[in-house]
Write a structure and sequence with these properties.
37% of the residues lie in helices and 20% in strands.
Length: 679
DNA sequence: AGGCCTCGAGTTCA
DNA sequence: CTCGAGGCCT
């Protein structure tokens, strides 16, 4: 190599370095500060020159060159990356009270010394780690499980607001934490393009961002409009003199280093300021062009953070306040059919998991085919889910304009998915039923589970997995077999030690002495629920008398009409059922109803109808119900004009409203107790 | 027959 | 909790 040539190379290297610095500077002005100082055309000219020069001298291309933001070849898979300092998740809180409790915990742990908080928006995207060595961006990874994530360096390089080099005067090494997200407008645009191309749509910007970052081909990612807000530092080496003392200072340090931080972060001196911030952004979230799902609250002082430490799961110096999302959109991945103990086929939507009012929803009942028809919900649809009341999620509607045409309509199967028997829809019923009866494994399993359930024979430990195992092992075919179980058979089952087996057998033993009404309910006679079971047991007193009752004797019982009576007769006509009852009696299961308590008839509650709502302090719901029943009262589930008392506990439901509407007497817990005592 | 009022049945997640 | 349907009262 001649002298002139090596001189040329040096000149070219200089030019390359200058071009790269300049382009990165303009990237920073444009993508981070949103304040460009040159025109797009000028920027393009610089970029073109760099591309040309690098093409002529491929040996001079560096990995942090702006051209390399899109240059990498598609990867075969994502390499795992172990985070040098783990990416912990934050504890979630859902209410003002919980934020106050967090504040109280922090203060107590810090012996009451003054505490400042930083409140920041919780961007609904995905957390990533950006590793810099000697000031250069070397590796980016997803959060993964917090310890190990996936290497998405090439994809992160396509995000222009991530600096390829830190804008610091020293070669600092650090791990920067941030949230990658997609702007709403861009998300909508992306989905429109995908629909036009017949591709499946993303349910929300978060999924779109996640999907884009996990593209194997960075060229695809480069076309996706991703951006990032950084919010923290995992570790930092080489910036000791500039090292921040507080989280707030850390954020300005990150800003100085060339990162994009969220402008709406606020330093709060009191917890009330934090609550104001939460309330404000809860209201104003729609005004942002990116989605947020809450507010992150952090103790500002890093020294205090250190003293507070962390639990195994999350730091004690921060919480994530999640807005009470009442509704969410997600995608119906599939509609499956469940077979209940009565053979009813229930369609259930399997959903792309979505956070909703404090829990992750992944399935929701669709009740029956009529409802699916009425709401026109198809497999693959984007749907709106809502938590009706408190816990149970409901699919409200399908978002029809998100359709790509690839969605499939749901059809109720003609054969039972569990046993292959015919499925029928009886006249006047909306439910489809499997006619397999006890030949259907699902119905056998569910009826045994029902028998053992808490309100029936209350056999603790007999949950879904144990019942499945007992059936598979051939130990239990009908509920009568439960009472023939041997210790060694049970102990031989998977995940069952001697101790668990003993516990199970003693729970079974205990169930033999319960009053008749539990057994009647446990049998699962059609149209005989908890209430009717009690009425029947009290009326007839013994199983023998119930089993030999005539139609008219049955309809004499309160709330028993022709349908229920016929159903009871049918149950006892069936020889297999009579055989089961004989075996239960032989095993020593109690077949009598206890006499009513002496106090019944004297109590002011005798003959009264009571409705309970909300949580009581000193009783469980069940205990309160029993107490009313023992005094000759009735407990009902809904408030009407016939209701005598509504007992209101903490966090009452809609029944309280109804009671006031109808002018029904409302009791608090203390008044209720007095009434129980006879006052 | 019509209109309540209740009950039964199925259901979700941590 | 909600829906559907059985039962009872008018």
């Amino acid at each position: 190599m001649g002298v002139a040539e090596s001189e040329d190379i040096r000149v070219i290297e200089d030019r390359l370095r200058k071009l790269r610095d300049e382009i990165e500077f303009h990237n920073y002005r444009y993508y981070v500060l949103d304040d460009p100082v040159i025109s797009d055309a000028e920027y393009d000219r610089l970029m073109n020159e760099l591309v040309r020069l690098e093409a002529a001298h491929p040996e001079l291309v560096t990995p942090d060159s702006p051209t390399q933001r899109v240059g990498a070849a598609p990867a075969a898979a994502f390499a795992p990356v172990v985070h040098r300092s783990p990416m912990m998740s934050l504890a979630n809180v859902y209410s003002v009270e919980e934020i106050r409790a967090f504040d109280a915990r922090v203060r107590r742990a810090l012996d009451g010394e003054p505490v400042e908080y930083v409140a920041e928006l919780k961007i609904d995207g995905l957390a990533v780690s950006l590793v810099y060595e000697d000031g250069r961006f070397v590796r980016g990874a997803t959060r993964g499980d917090g310890t190990t994530g996936e290497d998405v360096t090439h994809n992160l390089k396509t995000i222009r607001s991530i600096p390829m080099r830190l804008r610091l005067d020293k070669p600092v090494s650090m791990d920067v934490r941030g949230e990658v997200y997609m702007v709403r407008r861009e998300f909508q645009k992306l989905n429109e393009e995908r629909r036009a191309a017949g591709e499946p749509l993303f349910a929300n910007p978060r999924n779109a961002a996640a999907g884009s970052l996990r593209q194997l081909d960075p060229k695809v990612t480069a076309e996706r409009p991703l951006d990032i807000f950084v919010y923290g530092i995992g570790y930092v080496i080489g910036a000791e003199d500039a090292a921040p003392d507080t989280h707030f200072e850390a954020l300005s340090f990150l800003k100085k280093a060339g990162f994009r931080t969220n402008p709406n972060t606020r330093l709060c001196r009191t917890v009330d300021e934090v609550l104001d911030y939460c309330a404000h952004w809860g209201e104003m979230r729609a005004s942002l062009d990116y989605e947020i799902d809450g507010v992150v609250v952090k103790v500002n002082s890093l020294a205090q953070q250190e003293r507070l430490g962390a639990t195994a799961r999350s730091p004690r110096w921060a919480v994530a306040y999640k807005f009470p999302a009442r509704q969410a959109t997600t995608v119906v991945r599939d509609i499956i059919v469940q077979v209940g103990r009565t053979g009813t086929l229930t369609p259930v939507a399997v959903l792309e998991p979505v956070e909703l009012a404090g829990s992750t929803v992944s399935r929701a009942t669709l009740h029956n085919e009529d409802m699916i028809r009425a709401k026109d919900i198809r497999i693959g649809d984007t749907v709106v889910v809502e938590k009706g009341g408190d816990v149970i999620p409901e699919v409200v509607k399908a978002v029809a304009d998100r359709r790509t045409g690839a969605e499939r309509e749901f059809r109720m199967p003609e054969k039972c998915p569990e046993c292959g028997a015919d499925v029928v829809r009886l006249e006047g019923e909306s439910a489809y039923r499997c006619v397999g009866g006890m030949a259907c494994p699902a119905q056998v399993r569910e009826s045994i589970l029902h028998f053992a359930s808490r309100d029936a024979m209350d056999i603790e430990g007999m949950g879904p997995s144990l019942v499945a195992q007992l059936i598979d092992a051939g130990l239990v075919k009908t509920v009568a077999d439960i009472y023939d179980l041997k210790l060694e058979d049970v102990a031989a089952l998977e995940r069952m030690g001697k101790k668990s087996a003993e516990n199970l057998l003693s729970a079974i033993e205990k169930s033999k002495s319960y009053p008749l009404h539990r057994l009647v309910f446990a049998l699962g006679i059609r149209h005989v629920g908890e209430r009717s079971a009690r009425d029947l047991a009290e009326h007839f007193g013994t199983m023998d008398r119930l089993a030999s009752a005539t139609f008219s004797e049955l309809t004499d019982v309160r709330d028993v009409g022709p349908k229920v009576a016929e159903s009871v007769l049918a149950f006892f006509r069936e020889p297999r059922n009579r055989e089961i009852l004989r075996r239960l009696a032989d095993a020593g299961v109690n077949m009598k109803e206890a006499e009513k308590g002496v106090s019944a008839g004297k109590s002011p509650l005798a003959g009264k109808t009571v409705v309970l709502t909300g949580a009581l302090e000193r009783f469980t719901r069940k205990e309160a119900e029993e107490a009313v029943l023992a005094r000759g009262g009735r407990v009902s589930g809904s408030v009407s004009r016939k209701t005598d008392y509504v007992v209101v506990g903490r966090d009452p439901g809609s029944k309280y409203e109804k009671a006031r509407e109808l002018g029904v007497t409302v009791l608090d817990e203390r008044e209720f107790e007095r009434l129980l005592e006879g006052g």
